[in-house]
Amino acid sequence: MDESHSHLSLFIEEKEFCMIHFSLRRLPLALALAGAGLLASAAHAHGTWLAHIHGQSTVMYGHDGADTDAYDPAKVIDARAHKNGNAVEAKVVPHEQRYATLEADKPGVLGYTLRSGFWHKGADGKWHNQPRSAAADPAKVEKAMLGVMYSVSYQNAREPVKALGYALEIVPAVNPAKLEEGDKLSVQVLYEGKPLAGAKVSVDFFDHDADQVTTDAEGRAELKVAREGFNVLAVEHSVAHSNKSEADTVNMMASLSFESKHDHDH
Q1: Could you list the mean pLDDT of each consecutive 10-residue stretch along the chain, which spans 266 residues?
Q2: Signal peptide position in this chain (predicted)?
Q3: What global pTM score does this model have?
């Protein structure tokens, strides 16, 4: 992210809410109006995950639970849901306050795509929410990318595990909501339905110093559940864009969120 890009932060009244019961902490929901919408992410600074806020399955975008950005809800597409292992209808509900929620009938798993769109870093050193071809002088564009994010969220511990079929996806070997903090969890990273070797899976997206586990030749990695309560795993993958006049790369991020079981012995 270009350091010179300033945020105009609007803070919603600080309320006690849970991000799928995320520690029941009081957190400000910071909605930063970022000009044309989502800010481009040059590293892993921004991501997306699903949180339960005031009873709604809310699409979040930002650095972590206490630092989230506003976005154009039209960028959230392709909602998917499973219930008892079967696909059920899911829809994206846009809100005027610049966010979106998902709706489905008591789903066991929810997922969506957040398409942040084309971004280029111009001669002015700033990121613009446009393809390279839209720049005043495309030859002076330092870099250009298409940003796409995918997120899958396990809503209960009873749902059987099944991939939702997104282009980039973290698929757990078991329903992670059955596990407790410190338990081992095996995952497989799939890109276009095939194992992705060498991918680095962050065991805790909200902790920027968290361990990363590299997938093997079958796209598999073993990690430990990082938190009691709300967890977000994340992985990134980039491929060349087919049209260099628009972008150099397609930069993808995928997250897997769930609430681990509470240790009742403590």
Answers
A1: 33 31 33 34 67 93 77 96 97 95 97 96 92 94 96 97 98 97 98 98 92 97 95 97 96 96 63
A2: 1-45
A3: 0.82
